[in-house]
Amino acid sequence: MSLTTVVLADDHLVVRKGLRALLDAEPDLSVVGEAADGLETLPLVERLKPAILVADLAMPGLSGLDVTREARQRSPETRTVILSMYANEAYVMEAISNGAYGYVMKDASAADFLRAVREAAAGRLYLSPPLSLSAVEDYARRHRGAPVDLYETLTARERAVLHLAAEGLTNAQIGTRLSISGRTAESHRAHLMRKLGLRGQTDLVRYTIERGILPAKAPP
């Protein structure tokens, strides 16, 4: 029996522990690494080259959707399964476009999650209920010819800066996280703000929430 290696990426420790226990209980699946945010995930995937990456849609540092895109470049053989709270065809379409093989709701059953991992390992696309490929294809048809998504004009580094800036990090702190100077982080921030037509931090945070990069905070 061949062993399918898995890396888990989720900022909630209890979620990672639960998924690890579930996966390691299966004789054909083995968790070989864990990461707590998107920026930690990419070098881990590049180093370990797992068969499967399970990534949360909304993570600090870099979203699961962006991690999927970058992981595909760094480890082409790794297939990503997205975990999400959002049954949203737009997110599913972007995940598939970025190279994901699975999109699983966080309230899915254990059997459903394991099926997604195994289907992805076999090179087959899997969407957990209530999602369906036909609904995603219908969404794509209805939005064909829509204006270019400005987010797609950002570089990988600008996307990382956007995520960190939305989390409230200063330019100096962003520079430290990305191993660049604070001045370079400031330059990336200015470029992305101009590309997205954002005027200040309030606009930036609102944009990331509306796009699903950052989860909306519940009212107190």
Main sheet record? 6 strands, parallel
SSE order, one letter for each helix or strand: EHEHEHEHEHEHHHHH
Task: Compute the number of helices.
Answer: 10
- Major sheet: arrangement of strands: 2-1-3-4-5-6
What's the name of the CATH homologous superfamily of the largest domain? Answer: Response regulator
The stretches of 5 or more residues where confidence is low (pLDDT under 50) are none
Which structural class fits the helix and strand makeup?
alpha/beta
Topology-level CATH name of the largest domain: Rossmann fold
Q: How many strands in all?
A: 6
CATH architecture annotation name of the largest domain: 3-Layer(aba) Sandwich
Number of domains: 2
Average pLDDT value? 89
> For the CA atoms, what is the radius of gyration?
17 Å
Separation of the first and last Cα atoms:
51 Å
- Tell me the β content: 5-15%
The shape is globular
Look at the structure and give the CATH class of the largest domain. Answer: Alpha Beta
Share in helix: 40-55%
Describe this structure in words.
With 220 residues, this protein is α/β, with parallel strands linked by helices. It folds into 2 domains: 4-142, Rossmann fold (3-Layer(aba) Sandwich), CATH 3.40.50; 150-210, Orthogonal Bundle (Arc Repressor Mutant, subunit A). It contains 10 helices and 6 strands, in the order βαβαβαβαβαβααααα. It has helices spanning 13-24, 38-48, 64-74, 89-97, 110-121, 133-142, 156-166, 171-178, 182-196, 201-210, and strands at residues 4-9, 29-35, 52-56, 79-84, 102-105, 126-127. Strands 2-1-3-4-5-6 form a 6-stranded parallel β-sheet, with helices on both faces. Strand 4 (79-84), helix 4 and strand 5 form a beta-alpha-beta unit. The protein is globular and about 55 Å long. It starts with a strand and ends in a 10-residue tail after the last helix.
